[in-house]
Amino acid sequence: MKHQKIAMFSTMLCLLGLGFSDTALGQITTQPPLSSGMSFQVQSGGAQGSQNLTIYTPNATTVFITVPAGQTWMKVNGEPASDVFTVNTSQNGALAAATIPVQVNTLNLSTNQTVAANIQIMIANEPATLVNFPVALTVGQSAAPHAGREALAVFRLRRPGPRASSI
User: Fold this and answer.
1) Which of 92, 90, 24 is nearest to 62 (CA)?
2) 53/38 Cα distance (integer angstroms)
3) I need a labelling partner for 81 at 20 to 30 A (CA). Which of 32, 107, 109, 159 fits?
4) Distance, CA of 112 to CA of 137 (rounded, Å)
5) Which domains does the chain have, with CATH numbers?
6) Contact by Cβ (8 Å): 80, 118
7) CA 11 to chain centre
8) Which residues are within 8 A (CB) of 162 and not within 5 positions of it... i.e. 6 or more apart?
9) Nearest CA among 106, 99, 45, 96 for reference residue 74
């Protein structure tokens, strides 16, 4: 009787371990990490910013990326809001990776405004691998105007040149 309980418990542990083993195989990780996402602070007035997002998969594969709808301030790999596109990860070491740019702009956004959205990433045809990558943009003050060359010339100090002397 005791042997049957031990065998039954061992079988259950093995099945539980097998159930979790394929979850780790299909996992997506990113740099910057999914937990912190990506944050931008960009000046107002249509200024732009860009950072790279690296997507890691266990093996070389195709990844679906969805740019969130209604987010005209963000492009991913040059793709606009509501677009779904694919990238292929390439094996280079233990994990396969693909790097894509995330671009933001402040056109039509107000100073001190913060906007945020999630980029969806999923290994092709594996819905269980879907992850949301958070992106936030804070719009700052526009740069103070600076004086051009002509304006600076007015303030330039002139050194007196040599004086002619008469003998």
Assistant:
1) 90
2) 8
3) 32
4) 10
5) 27-143 (2.60.40.2040)
6) no
7) 43
8) none
9) 106
Torsion of Cα atoms, 136 then 142 then 143 then 148, to 10°? 140
d(CA 119, CA 2): 53
Q: Which two tokens stand for residue 62?
A: 């195709």
Q: What's the pTM?
A: 0.71
CA atoms within 13 Å, Cβ hemisphere of 36: 7
Q: In 9-43, which positions are buried (b, 16+ CB within 10 angstroms) versus exposed (e)?
A: eeeeeeeeeeeeeeeeeeebebebeeeebbebebe
* Phi, psi (deg, nearest 5) at residue 109: -110, 155
Q: Are 87 and 62 spatial neighbours (Cβ–Cβ below 8 Å)?
A: yes
- Please tell me whether residue 158 adopts helix, strand or coil conformation: coil
DSSP assignments along 67-111, one per residue: PPTT-TTEEETTB-TT-EEEEE-EE-SSSEEEEEEEEEE-TT--T
At 143 the pLDDT is: 64
For residues 65 and 121, is the Cβ–Cβ distance under 8 A? yes
pLDDT tens-place string over residues 70-120: 999 999 999 999 999 999 999 988 899 999 999 999 999 999 999 999 999
CA dist., res. 93 & res. 165, Å (int): 80
